[in-house]
Design goal:
This protein is α/β, with parallel strands linked by helices. It has helices at 2-21, 80-84, 87-93, 116-129, 143-154, 178-185, 190-201, 206-211, 219-222, 230-239, 246-249, 255-265, 300-309, 331-341; strands at residues 41-43, 49-56, 64-69, 95-100, 136-141, 159-165, 286-292, 314-318. It has an 8-stranded mixed sheet with strand order 1-2-4-3-5-6-7-8, with helices on both faces. α13 (300-309) links the parallel β7 and β8. It is globular, with a radius of gyration of 21 Å. It starts with a helix and ends in a 7-residue tail after the last helix.
Amino acid sequence: MIREITVILLIGFVAWAYQATRPPPPNVCGSPGGPAITAPRIKLRDGRHLAYKEHGVSKELAKYKIIFVHGFGSSRHDAAIAANLSPEVVDELGIYIVSFDRPGYGESDPDPKRTRKSLALDIEELADQLGLGSKFYVVGFSMGGQVVWSCLKYISHRLTGAALIAPVINYWWPGFPANLTKEAYYLQLPQDQWALRVAHYAPWLAYWWNTQKLFPPSAVVARRPEIFSAQDVQLMPKLAVRQINRAQVIQQGVHESLFRDMMIGFGTWEFDPMDLENPFPNGEGSVHLWQGDEDRLVPVILQRYISKKLPWIHYHEIPGSGHLIADTDGMTEAIIKALLLGEKVTLS
């Protein structure tokens, strides 16, 4: 009898564990009962749809065409470089910007097969279907900045220039010295250390770990105030206008948006960004990396190391700035003019 009860309990536990770790299916936009489609979208090579939003002058008149890649827990509406650039600068320089929902976010279809390469190819296809020409710029913020590394790896031949704004680090990139990544890793809150361990070593547990109630989940997912610098907190009211679209960000489900981001961003990469070669050896373009020295989400010590390993990158470290560096006064204009015009930036 005891043996039979034990078997039944074991079967019950396995069934419970399977259900607990298995994420619910995404609530795809346009599907029966799913969120409505309100944005313009393109249909990609594999049948998925990518939602986008255009800013600035028309692409037909634009001198400079930029694709903006949003960060973690954001959407096409969170294009800081478009929101913060003055209309005068946009018109004077002839700037066109297109932001898009990365797969699973907003109104872009989820992509359970998403890889670092597939998103770079999505960006290339977006440019082609919108008729942006053979060359364009990419600018990415935070987790979107991490995506720019993939663009430099896989579609560098399509780029005129690139900017990474507070790009998220993968602590398992082999080019980092072990002692440096260990120091940086333990600057995070303990629950974020565990959340990244799960994303890296046991990605199949990502959904369960970030939705269970036994242990503290990711502070980044929960947007706890401890993850923001003093300057970031001061900037929050400025960002309030962009929060009206907050509910739309994860309307298709948290797994194919937030948790898929974590699994891709902190999983095992097939390339190390520190092995990349200069995509513009003849000076026909440039790559810029912008980082605040008080960023509590992305350790500045790792960005400094990357900039030394890749001397062809124009590294800009902003004293006193946190993660929301692009929302500080005048910074977006400095980022864009450095990228497009090669203007020198005076840091204070």
